Amino acid sequence: MEWKTHGERQVYTNQWVNLCLADVQQPDGSRCEYSIVRLRHLAVTAVVNNHQEVLMMWRHRFITDTWAWELPMGLVEDDETPEEAAAREVLEETGWRPGRIKPLIYAEPASGITDSQHHVFRADDATYVSPPTEKNESDRIEWIPLTEIRGMIDRREIVSSGSLVGLLYLLLDEATR
Questions:
Q1: What is the pTM of this model?
Q2: How many CA atoms lie within 13 A of 65 on its CB side?
C-alpha cells in the first residue's frame, strides 16, 4: 500500500526547518494535503571508554522544559559527512576528541511527519583536549557506567530519541558480545 505524491510546496523555511504541504493520494484513492517537516540530518555519538562508561551531557531542553542526559549530537552541515559531524559535535560539546568513529545504527525517529535522519555512531576511546567550546549545550559532562543506563531510561533521565536509539542499541550490542 503505497502513497503517491502529486506535488509539494514549501510554506516556511529557515536554517533548521522546512515546513511543506504535500498533495498525496492515499492507498484507498482519496487525496489530501499532508504536512511535512523537513529537517537537517543529525549525527549522534556514543563514546565508550575502557571502563565501560559512556560520555553524556546533562542539559535542559526549553521546548519541553525538561532536564535529561544526552549523548553528544548535532546537525550535519552541508559540507561534511555524518561521521565528520559526529566527531566535531563530540569535541565541541564535551571537549573530548573521539577515537575512530564507526556506524552503530541509523534511525528515522518520526518518519510519518518528518524526513529527519539520525546517524548514530560509536567511538571506543576519546582524548580530553580542552573545555567544551559550545558553552550553551550542557551543565555537566560525565562518564556514566553502562550498567546505570537502563535505570536512567526507566526513570526518564534519558528521553531524547537520538540518545535512546544509540544507547539501547549499544546495550543490545554489549549483551550479545
A1: 0.90
A2: 0
